[in-house]
Amino acid sequence: MKKYLWIIGVLLIFVLLHITPHAALRTHVFLMGYPIKALSSEILVDVYDGEVEEDTKIYTLTDPPIEKATEGILSHYAVKKAGFLYFAEFYGH
Questions:
Q1: How much is the pLDDT for 79?
Q2: Residue span of the structural domain in which 12 resides
Q3: Which of 61, 70, 77, 82 shows its CA 20 to 30 Å from the CA of 33?
Q4: How far is it, in rounded angstroms, from Cα 72 to Cα 19?
Q5: Which own/partner contact pairs does 58-65 have at CB distance under 8 Å and 24+ positions apart?
Q6: Residues 41, 60: Cα–Cα separation, whole Å
Q7: How would DSSP label each residue in 10-68?
C-alpha cells in the first residue's frame, strides 16, 4: 500500500510542476541548476515571428541565468503544451 501512495505522490508532484507554462518553465530552469534565477526572474510572453509549432509559445526571463561554460545568456524558452501539461526547453534565438 505504501508503494502505491509513493507512486501517486510522485505523479501528483510531476503534474503540479507542469500544470501551467510558468511552472513548467521555472521547473526546467531549476533543474538546469539555477534555482535562484528560476524562482526570482519574471517571465514574459515573447512575440516571436519565427517558425514555432502551433501549440508552442516562446517565453523570456527578465533576469536570465548565464551559462558558466560558454557565458551564454539563457533567456528564451519554448513551452509546449502536451495534453493538459506543459513542457519547457531552452530556445536559443
A1: 94
A2: 2-90
A3: 82
A4: 29
A5: 58/91, 58/93, 59/21, 59/22, 59/25, 59/88, 61/25, 61/29, 61/37, 63/37, 64/37, 65/29, 65/32, 65/34, 65/37
A6: 10
A7: HHHHHHHHTSSHHHHHHHHHHHTT-HHHHHH--EEE----S---TTEEEEEESS--B-T
> For the chain, how far is it from start to end, CA to CA, in angstroms?
48
Asked whether residue 89 carries a pLDDT value surpassing 90, the answer given is: yes
Q: How many domains does the chain have?
A: 1
Asked if 42 and 26 count as a contact pair (C-beta separation under 8 A), the reply is: no
Q: What digits encode the pLDDT tens for the residues 45-58?
A: 887 767 778 888 99
CB atoms within 10 A of CB 24: 22
Q: In this predicted model, what pLDDT tens digit does every residue of 22-70 receive, in sequence order?
A: 999 999 999 999 999 999 999 998 877 677 788 889 999 999 999 888 8
